[in-house]
Hints:
The structure holds two protein chains of two kinds. Residues about 535-540 of chain A have low confidence and may be disordered. Chain A has helices at about 20-25, 30-55, 65-105, 110-135, 145-150, 155-185, 195-230, 240-275, 280-295, 310-325, 325-340, 350-370, 375-380, 385-415, 420-445, 460-490, and strands spanning about 415, 490-495, 520-525. Chain A has 16 helices and three strands. Chain A has a two-stranded antiparallel ribbon. Chain B is mostly helical. Chain B is built from eight helices and one strand. Chain B has helices at about 30-65, 65-75, 75-100, 105-135, 150-165, 165-170, 175-220, 230-255, and one strand at about 5. In chain B, α1 (about 30-65) packs across α2, α1 (about 30-65) packs parallel to α8 (about 230-255) and α4 (about 105-135) packs antiparallel against α7. The radius of gyration of chain B is 26 Å and the shape is elongated. In chain B, about 30% of the residues are buried. The interface between A and B is large, with 59 and 50 residues.
Amino acid sequence: MDATRELPSLTYLNNGHGLKSWLLTKDHKRIAILYLISISVMFFLGGLFAVGIRLELTTPAGDLVSSDTYNKFFTMHGVIMVFFFLIPSIPAVLGNFLIPPMIGAKDLAFPRINLLSWYIYVVGAIFTLFAMVAGGVDTGWTFYTPYSAAASNTNVIPTALGVFISGFSSILTGLNFIVTIHRMRAPGMTWFRLPLFVWAHYATSLIQVLGTPVVAITILMVFVERALGFGIFDPTRGGDPVLFQHLFWFYSHPAVYIMILPAMGVISEVLSTFSRKTIFGYSFVAFSSLAIAVFGFIVWAHHMFVAGISVYAAMVFSFLSFSVAIPSAVKTFNWAATLYKGSISFEAPMLYVYGFIGLFLVGGLTGLFLATLGIDIHVHDTYFVVAHFHYIMVGGAIMGYLGGLHFWWPKMFGRMYSEFFSRIAAILVFVGFNLTFFPQFILGYMGMPRRYHAYVDEFQVLNVMSSAGAAVLGVGYLLPVIYLVWSLKKGEIVGPNPWAASGLEWQIASPPPTENFAVTPIVTHEPYEYTPHVAGEKHVV
Amino acid sequence: MSDAVAHLDAHGEAHAHHPALQHHFSTMQQQKEAGTLGMWVFLLTEVLFFGGMFMAYTLYRVWYFDAFAEASRTLDITLGGFNTAVLIGSSLTMAFAVRSAQVNEKGAIVRWLILTILLGGVFLGVKAVEYEHKFVEHHVPGPTFVWEEAGAAGAEMEASEESHSSSAAAIAEAGGVEAHNALLQGRTQLFFSLYFLMTGLHAIHMIVGIGLLSVIGWMAHKGKFDAQYYAPVEMAGLYWHFVDIVWIFLFPLLYLVERHG
């Protein structure tokens, strides 16, 4: 590129200075940056607890921390990563930043509610961090009763309140997206011209607005039981703890799709750009997002196969759980078909996409093992389950998040990061991830239970492999912090469309002006109109 | 790709902007449609929020019908019925407020809103009296909960039943009666836990609604609304009607479990 490029003079970043202009902003792009900073902080906090867990598990004896402390470690790791990182990650950062420009809008439908959602998130996070500082919580991120309501003597109440509060942030984000996608599309931006990223977020938002209130009321019921002595799940008064599990998983299973669906949206965007091809089977990929959202709501009891539900209920839920594989496979096969005969390249965002597809495949297929009643009873509450959901939530959601962050980073800040280091980081994350979690499948299959700080000597080799992998993974996560922050000042200025991508968001300046579009665009083309084998204005280092 | 995006000329920008039109909407129509859809989606989340409690209620009512029926009979049906009428009345006055906004009668908006707020206040006042009764009767779940001192009618009925039954049988079943009472002690607490949680959350929604209507009333008083822009009145109305409808479900479920006999 020519070295004379300059950043646009007026962007969302320099339109208003000082802390106040950020804390009172109604610009969806600035709110996305606020979210980016807060969830990154939470991610590294949650990561610290993972470090503690992996350190403890390098030796068979429980010698580093007491079992009580260990319980707090995995609980805080889970609570922070699930509610304060994974759920907001792609929607609140990338979705917030990109949905309005992708559909030709100046902002989300409710800018003030958008800002409110960030403040609610922060208040929820403060409650949870308070619980952490005050001594931690040890119920597991699932808050199962009666332990959480009566037995645990740790800080359940502030943690539960923190999760309860942060749920409303998620609801408001989903509500904002649904209304924005329905009502704010530019002329000509029909439903079937929407980027698949937007479709994925639409499906995600449906889960957020329909599922989150259920877990909110469930946590509130635990709260009144613990704080006020009410009895709703209390077996001594005739209450049913299994009811808690039903209500909890009614949200918390679909919550997995809140994490993975937006990542799938990222994959569709990045994959088509770097294979210079239209997405294969656009409408199938779009509707498979909705199908995953719908199926996601009717499979929750597969978390409860050993909780005493009836064998008939278990068979129905087993069958329904298998059916989620259909829309998931539709996506994977369509991505593979998109790559076929494409002009494929290997930029950092694309490396994350390849990683995602591989890891999601393993995570998804082991999900079928777990949906099988007989196998589930064997591996229930073992490391097999831990490995499975990390393949989906870390291997899937975080790969998607990092891929998307790298893909749209030059759009968000107008500058490019180090191509070399970003590729190294993507490879480290992939290798480190597999080294961390693949041994856990074997450990679980051999019978190592989750949530214990000690184990039998036979499991040590695999556990040391896992801890070593976690160290590699940690480096893979820290590297981007360094080169991305470096790029903010020193990165090469690359102009509006460094990847020669087709989406509407690439037609505006990088970084975009506050109002995105000076005049509302009229969309006349289909999405992903790439011409194969014609290199566009591609970024070259 | 640059030809993918044609640009809209100043069409539509020619009209003078309504002062309430936010910068990111093109027309008042678009702004109103967005607000309305947003409100309905919000109410959908509210349905699921209350839905969790209705689920718990349904399960336990099916399992412990007798305990729920007995506990339900201690609620004051007169006050509950009165409150139902008050709340339905407040929905009517709310509808009049929205109507006044539509036909641009600014004074009437404020008057109807004040009446709605007053009716909401009456509802909350009566609810407080009912709560106070429950406190006095030790029907608040937790360590202080006592079921034996149930409503006078229930206690009398039990006493008369016992005096009727032959003493021998009564003594034989003494252990059974004790166990039965222990079960009732727990299960009626389930009922009252749900009663306080459901009506309590409903009351919190009422309080939020009253705050909302006060703000809307103030805005109306300041002349912020006209025939083109009255969406906030309408949205507050939707919320108020929703809270009303929740009570329409709560009243029969909590007060009328088994009133006959």
